[in-house]
Amino acid sequence: MAKITWKTPIVEMQGDEMTRVLWDRIKETLLLPHLELNTDFYDLSLTERERTKDEVTVKAANAIKKYGVGVKCATITPNSRRMEEYKLSNMWRSPNGTIRSVLDGTVFRAPIAVGAIAPYVGGWKKPITVARHAYGDVYAASEIAVDAPAKAELKIMYKDGREVVKEIFGFSSSGIVQGMYNTDKSIESFARSCFSYALDVGQDVWFAAKDTISKTYDARFKSVFDEVFQGYKERFEKHGIKYEYSLIDDSVARVIRSEGGFIWALKNYDGDVMSDMVATAFGSLAMMTSVLVSPDGCYEYEAAHGTVTRHYYKYLKGESTSTNSVATIFAWSGALKKRAQTENNAALKNFAESLEKAVISTIESGFVTGDLIPLWRGASAPVKLDSFSFLSHISENLGKILNS
User: Fold this and answer.
1) φ and ψ at residue 57, rounded to 5 degrees
2) Across-strand partners of 41?
3) Cα–Cα distance between 21 and 307 in angstroms, integer?
């Protein structure tokens, strides 16, 4: 049979360590036998980012803006130990942060539900997608340690000469103070991304903040969401989906009591924490997808987890590993489905859906990686496979599905 291909390239971004090894094996085992890959390739490994002074990351991000769809392998965000290990000239920024900045995008994370792996929260029947506003707030805050009696002030100096000053706190002894920010433009982009993605996947949007306490900061998020939603309201009604706001504490309680199946839009810190909570409650971070969506409709898919460093060092020693590649496979299938949608490519859509079915059927048949053993709820005992045998089983199931 002729291999399936597509017209507009998908931006392919290679990564680091064990996920890099699996990336190549996924292509070799699951993709290349069936697809004529049309990709615009960028190597985002830490060594290549060092060689190009991180220009390769910016080029990749701009390519996503050009072609509209990207798929990314997990990458290292260096710390001081990594700087020494890789002999870096600079502690290069997270590629994800650079790409988010270029695309002005919002990160949507959702678990991959498998029947034999029951969520820890018994009522959850459908995946919960966490939309994190990954801009500003505490992650870009300025902080000062106070070491003596002092007065902390918040001061705004306008270009026209106006000044607004507000006392934060009068310190009688040592302490700490923090100042953080956000912009209307970024909040508006976040809201548009959430509402556009909701229409794309046909799910309700729940936005949560704490405007009763943060009467200016969080209240601005709420009002911007309300304003932006007016442009989507008619389409939401047409598709039978809803948008609603609630306080973050009320929202957490409602999420726990829910059956899932919605988009949970959260500010930066809340989204960071709650996405890990949702991933853990559903079973494993290796079973969590992540897609970055820009307000103008660009999509970048990746796994929610990191480079699996511990397994990589075992692999380099020639030792067997049992690394879960599901989220990385679903990053590929997500990008392929999106490209199929943009080009009305039925054959590509069928392949991507078949690939996901092959992954799920492999796990539900009891063939799993080591991280899923403690989470198993199947009728019979599961079989633990090494990293590459797991992919071989998926390949076998994929062939059966495509030939059925």
Assistant:
1) -65, -45
2) 12
3) 10
Is beta strand 106-111 parallel, antiparallel or unpaired with respect to 129-132? antiparallel
Q: Name the strand (E) or helix (H) holding 302.
A: strand 299-303
The shares of helix, strand and coil residues in the chain, as percent rounded to the nearest 5, are 45, 20, 35
* 351 contacts 399 by C-beta, under 8 angstroms: no
What is the Cα–Cα distance from 207 to 222, expressed in whole angstroms?
8
CA atoms within 13 A on the CB side of 251: 22
CA separation for the pair 104, 294 (Å, rounded):
6
Residues 139 and 132 sit within 8 Å (Cβ to Cβ)? no
Distance from C-alpha of 34 to C-alpha of 6, rounded to nearest angstrom: 13
Three-class secondary structure assignment of 345-403: CHHHHHHHHHHHHHHHHHHHCCEECHHHHHHECCCCCCEECCHHHHHHHHHHHHHHHHH
- Whether 226 and 218 have beta carbons less than 8 Å apart is answered as no
List the one residue out of 71, 11, 83, 81 whose CA is nearest residue 47. Answer: 83
pLDDT (tens digit per residue) in 155-187: 999 999 999 999 999 999 999 999 999 999 999
Identify the pLDDT of residue 119.
Answer: 80
48: Cβ contacts below 8 Å, ≥ 6 apart: 56
pLDDT surpassing 90 at residue 267: yes
pLDDT in tens, 203-262: 999 999 999 999 999 999 999 999 999 999 999 999 999 999 999 999 999 999 999 999
Q: How far apart are CA 63 and CA 57, in angstroms?
A: 10
DSSP structure class, residue 180: -
In the sheet with 299-303, reading across from the earlier edge strand, the strands are 39-43, 10-14, 69-72, 299-303, 288-293, 106-111, 129-132, 263-266, 205-209, 243-247
Instruction: Kindly give the pairing relationship between strand 299-303 and strand 288-293.
Output: antiparallel
Residue burial 178-201, b: 16+ Cβ < 10 Å; e: rest: eeeebeeebbbbbbbbbbbbbeee
Can you give the pTM of this predicted structure?
0.86
